[in-house]
UniProtKB/TrEMBL annotation:
Annotated Pfam families: p450 (PF00067)
Lineage: Bacteria, Pseudomonadati, Pseudomonadota, Alphaproteobacteria, Rhodobacterales
UniProt-recorded name of the protein: Cytochrome P450
UniProt entry tagged with the keyword Metal-binding: yes
Example of a GO MF term: monooxygenase activity
Keywords: Heme, Iron, Metal-binding, Monooxygenase, Oxidoreductase
Length: 399
């Protein structure tokens, strides 16, 4: 791991090298510098003090879709149109309007009422798992729980969840720098667009008692144009499937790697939320929050000019030894855990599906403890990358 000092006095590391850093190398880099430059117009803030302070700073906005696509090198096409339209990549009134259309459905009190249904889905999936043979937990369990639940929330067919989940995982590569595999990403973007567009058209012709029918029929000031609505639903499918899948896989892996932790949860289920919080701190499925700098700001005493892309490395911040004692230790009883949890973002763009993700992981873990108490890990997974969406490798287990 090497950096050079640029003309602006900021340590420089090519984004390709930064994206391949191990967690230990990231820890070393954070101790050396509060900020590292990855590209001529892109820096990454590494320390908790700066990341927390800047997470909702008025001079930093969510990177607009067109700017994000330009930086990533994403050409015109369905993927680019999706990124330029999805609420995550918008700000101000556009963001408020698009997010507002879904706010009621994803309100925390509404989602808490689905806890029983989430548990029923998890119980069914775990009952389906093979017994007496090795299998990939990521594919057969961690992927199914969020995909089937987001299908239920939106009003999609459960039997379609495996199909759209596969396309979601490929499309999500558009959020992982450096960008690659465009043809595969674009094909999945087209497939998901056609799938959602057909579902919207079907609900317009024959409404059902589901969220998409409600959105199609909405004639209030919250309503969205058809094209706009399709892209929002695509984004919710992506957000509701990909990150929870990786996060849940790593939570279970962490507990199975240290059987004393698994046994402690077996004895006291009230520790399940703490286990999830701690695992998401150590191995978050999202490495940071991309922001666009409207005017000059200061990061760790270093001046960053306006017009820069500023990545707020929540992955690094949640491991910051100046904020958290023994940050590499998985501690079910930790008292200095960062609140609110940075893995779900901050400010106006804090994750819309945070409560659903928590319910899925909590009930999924409880169902696994009940339905497969003797599960053993044969091959541990790894979480790949430090930027954007991080990817979990398969975990091989046996029940």
């Amino acid at each position: 791991m090497e950096t050079t000092i640029g003309e602006d006095g900021i340590p420089f590391m090519p984004i390709e090298d930064y994206a391949k850093l191990s967690l230990e190398e990231l820890d070393t880099l954070r101790k050396q510098t509060p900020v590292v430059r990855l590209m001529p117009s892109r820096v990454s803030a590494l320390r908790d003090e700066d990341v927390t302070r800047l997470a909702a700073h008025p001079s930093l906005i969510q990177v607009p879709g067109p700017e994000f696509c330009n930086i990533m090198g994403i050409p015109d096409g369905r993927c680019r149109s999706f990124l330029e339209t999805f609420m995550l990549m918008t700000n101000g009134d556009d963001h408020k309007h698009r997010r507002g259309a879904f706010a009621r459905v994803f309100a925390h009190p509404v989602l808490r009422q689905k806890r029983g249904r989430v548990r029923a889905v998890a119980d069914h999936i775990i009952a389906d798992l093979p017994r007496g043979e090795e299998f990939d937990f990521l594919a057969l369990c961690a992927s199914r729980i969020p995909a089937e639940m987001i299908a239920e929330v939106l009003g999609l067919k459960t039997e379609d969840s495996a199909w759209f989940a596969g396309h979601v995982y490929r499309l999500s590569n558009c959020l992982v720098p450096p960008y690659s595999g465009h043809e595969e990403v674009e094909a999945s973007a087209e497939a998901l667009y056609d799938f959602v567009a057909q579902t919207v058209a079907d609900r317009r012709q024959a409404p059902q008692d589901d969220m998409i029918s409600m959105l199609v029929a909405d004639e209030s000031d919250r309503s969205l144009e058809t094209e706009e609505l399709i892209y929002q639903i695509m984004g919710l499918i992506l957000g509701g499937s990909d990150t929870t899948r990786s996060g849940f896989n790593m939570i279970v892996a962490r507990l199975l790697a240290d059987r004393s932790l698994w046994n402690e949860l077996q004895a006291d289920r009230s520790l399940i939320p703490a286990a999830i919080e701690e695992s998401l701190r150590l191995e978050p499925p999202v490495g940071g929050m991309p922001r666009y700098c409207l005017e000059p700001i200061e990061i760790g005493g270093i001046s960053i000019p306006g017009g820069q892309l500023v990545g707020l490395s929540t992955l690094s911040a949640m491991r910051d030894e100046t904020k958290i004692s023994d940050p590499e230790t998985f501690d079910l009883h930790r008292k200095d855990r960062p609140l609110p949890h940075l893995v779900f973002g901050a400010g106006a763009h804090r994750c819309l599906g945070e409560m659903l993700a928590r319910l899925e992981m909590e009930e999924g873990l409880a169902a696994l403890l009940d339905g497969a108490p003797d599960i053993e890990m044969v091959k541990a997974p790894e979480m790949i990358g430090v930027l954007g969406l991080r990817k979990s490798t398969p975990m091989i287990v046996r029940i």
